[in-house]
Amino acid sequence: MSDDLFYHLKAVLKAEDDAITIINNQRMVLFWNDAAVQTYNISQSEITNNRITDFFHSDDLMVLEVLKTKEAVNNVYHRPREDKHVVVNASPIYDDEDNIIGAVSVERDITQIVKLNDNLETTSAELNELKQKIYATESSSPFSKLAGRSISLKQTVQIAQKAANTEATTLILGESGTGKEVCARAIHEASPRKDAPFIPVNCGAIPEALFESELFGYEGGSFTGAEKKGKAGKIEMADGGTLFLDEVGELPLEMQVKLLRVLQENNIYRIGDSTGRKVNVRFIAATNQNLVQLMEDKQFRTDLFYRLNVIQLTMPPLRERIDDIPKLTSLFLKQFAEKYQVPEPKLDDEAFQILLQYDWPGNVRELRNMMERLIILSEKTIIEKHDLHNLFPNMKVTEKSSRAEVSSTLPAEKESIEKQLIKETLVQTNGNKSDAARRLGISRVTLYSKLKRYKIEV
């Protein structure tokens, strides 16, 4: 080999990023490039012409294994030291007579990659554990039953969560099927009274003649047909817990007077009882009627309204939270597929458009019932538009409700999404503009400008 070629090869080996080691059959180091120096922190002058086993344990060296077995290795993970991770290629070296005279190894240092991967695995495990905790918290939260991510629902849930931490009477307004009782139960289950009874009373389902005995109970023998031992009423049954008065607008005026007395004095009188008994009850009422109009018509007492209306919630109708329809649909399909032991079907895009365009007069209850009927009657794995028309022939859709027509251009769609995102972020930060701007990744000046542009009130 000419001297020029030798120096060229030496320059190539010197420029190589991977650690290159050449040993003879006596385990003496003949070549140790600069990358090897950096990888193992052993200088060339220290190791060259010395036994490699003076610096490494023989069991830790792949190059010695190759020298021993005379078999090359390619892209093998190796750990020559406790603190080093490498990928090694190694080969035996033969002379012209096919005698082994040494071995060469090329080792790529992947220590940092391994450490990063270990950190990533650790972080991923911690993140997964945290997600599981969050999921468990969310799924075990009473308010998780109010499924949805729409701003209107989130605002209602936020107020409900605050109400749960108090003893204040609460009035829940909303159309039929919007989930007023679900909300009332969530408030109870998230309150300090969660281990005590939650007693629901449907005021619209009780005959007027039975209202007093149902709510207040009676003493034994107080009227014909009464049980000898008497009977506790719903209010007494809820002692220590929560009484939920659904459709409170249906209460007869006479019962409104007696209910007001309970709210004022925390004392009830069974039919036939003149002494009364103390009760500790939290009242939650709900109605789909206009109580203000009922008060004007002298059908609902003003003083009772103000007693019940300490905290007021409004359950939004489903047509105002169409963003929640996909999640609710999926939730109900899964729930009823499990209940009836059938495969869970999927709705195609056109079928989903029908659900988004429908006005939902029966709200979430109607959607739930519809998905149950679909699971029972349909055997298809993919539900299409015509399947919905066949199963629900009375389902009339309104084209103007279609989300696709809300924003007909890309800029308008972008503005709509941006406005929605700003609103959601402000809800999450409880109206804190500085925090909202930080989360959105914009300056406060830009946020104020967008609030003004989109006419968002905080």
Description:
With 458 residues, this protein is of the alpha/beta class. The protein has four domains: 3-109, Beta-Lactamase (2-Layer Sandwich), CATH 3.30.450.20; 142-314, P-loop containing nucleotide triphosphate hydrolases (Rossmann fold, 3-Layer(aba) Sandwich); 318-403, Helicase, Ruva Protein, domain 3 (Orthogonal Bundle), CATH 1.10.8.60; 407-453, Homeodomain-like (Arc Repressor Mutant, subunit A, Orthogonal Bundle), CATH 1.10.10.60. Helix content is 45%, strand content 17%. It has 19 helices and 16 strands. The strands form five sheets. A five-stranded antiparallel β-sheet has the order 2-1-5-4-3. A five-stranded parallel β-sheet has the order 7-10-13-6-14. Strand 4 (84-94) and strand 5 (100-109) form a beta hairpin. The longest helix is centred in the N-terminal third of the chain and has 30 residues, at 111-140. The chain is elongated. The chain starts with a helix and ends in a 5-residue tail after the last helix. Residues 400-410 have low confidence and may be disordered. One of its GO terms (molecular function) is sequence-specific DNA binding. It holds the Pfam family PAS_9. Residues 9-76 form the PAS domain. It comes from Virgibacillus indicus. This is Sigma-54-dependent Fis family transcriptional regulator.
